[in-house]
Amino acid sequence: MTSLDSVLDKDGVRLTVDDVVATVTLTNPAKRNAQSPALWRALTEAGRLLPGSVRVVVLRGEGKSFSAGLDRQAFAPEGFDGEPSFLDMARGPEAELDATIAAYQEAFTWWRRNDIVSIAAVQGHAIGAGFQLALACDLRIVAEDVQFAMRETSLGLVPDLTGTHPLVNLVGYARALEICATGRFVHAEEAERTGLANLVVPADQLDAAGLDLAAALLAAPRDAVVETKALLSGALSRTYEEQRTAERAAQGRRLRDLAGLAD
Q1: Residue 83: which residues within 8 A CB-CB, separation 6 or more?
Q2: What Rg value do the Cα atoms of the chain yield, rounded?
Q3: Confidence of residue 4 (pLDDT cuts 50, 70, 90)
Q4: Which residues lie closer than 8 Å to 69 by C-beta, 6 or more apart?
Q5: Mean pLDDT in the chain?
Q6: What letter would DSSP give residue 64?
Q7: Pairing mode of beta strands 125-127, 147-149
Q8: What count of other Cβ atoms lies within 10 Å of the Cβ of residue 224?
Q9: How many C-beta atoms surround the C-beta of residue 32 within 10 A?
Q10: How many other C-beta atoms lie within 10 A of the C-beta of residue 192?
Q11: Structure confidence by residue, pLDDT tens digits, 49-102
């Protein structure tokens, strides 16, 4: 790929590639990057179009807000142009509703693939679906003005875009329940203290910090990072002994590969 090759640019999502680093940008700052089914399909497509050479993906939003969450037009009787409204979907068969939500979730799942490391660079509001999109990434760098909030419960809904699992893993069950049930804001200091954020920087340094972290992640050999990510991401679902076994197997693969390179 050539430098900053534009791979995708539609429905509020732009994917560009610069060698081994890809950038996914939310490009509707006039609506604070509010999300819609079309945007989710574009995010899913971005994951599918990601070149195999890419090692790090940076997710960012244009404007003052990362993403203010779901576009409220989804709940209007008319919905979006060419889309069923959420109210109409709720009146349909349960199996169809489940399949539709599963398709929406695809926009949030590919960020944790073992072959890439994803970084969310988050400024301003990251609310509801915006919070869950940031949680979909492996790492989060946030601006000092960041405001995370999970507002679904306040609207009589539940967070359903894959955000509950990483949220509980990062901050624990009790804090996750309190954040979701109250819908309150989580600001930069708390985000860093509780593990939601890896780093807090001034807003005008956010993009540079994301690129600096990407460069640091690229310093180690790709296969070693891939194996390490797989070990860590699976650790919570394994027993201590199972994790020991997984470590030995992974190290064996690495040593065999290195021995092969040395021959």
Answers
A1: 36, 37, 38
A2: 19
A3: low
A4: 34, 35, 125, 127, 128, 129, 130, 131, 151
A5: 94
A6: S
A7: parallel
A8: 13
A9: 21
A10: 16
A11: 999 999 999 999 999 999 999 998 877 777 787 787 788 888 889 999 999 999
Q: What is the rounded CA–CA span in Å between residue 203 and residue 205?
A: 5
CA neighbor of 253 nearest in space, from 224, 232, 233, 229: 224
**Could you tell me the sign of the dihedral formed by the alpha carbons of 157, 163, 167, 169, in that order?**
positive
For 160, residues 6+ apart whose C-beta sits below 8 A from its C-beta are 101, 105, 152
First to last CA, the chain: 31
Q: What's the gap between Cα 91 and its chain centre? A: 30
Who contacts 214 (Cβ-Cβ below 8 Å, separation ≥6)? 21, 56, 58, 119
Q: In this structure, which amino acid lies at residue 223? A: D
Conformation bin of residue 234: beta by default, left when phi > 0, alpha when psi is -120 to 50 = alpha
Contact 189, 200 (CB under 8 A): yes
Residue-level pLDDT at 261: 65
User: CA-CA distance, 110 to 115, in Å (whole number)?
Assistant: 10
- Measured at the CA of 210, the angle between CA 197 and CA 213, to 5 degrees, comes to 85
Stated length of the chain: 263
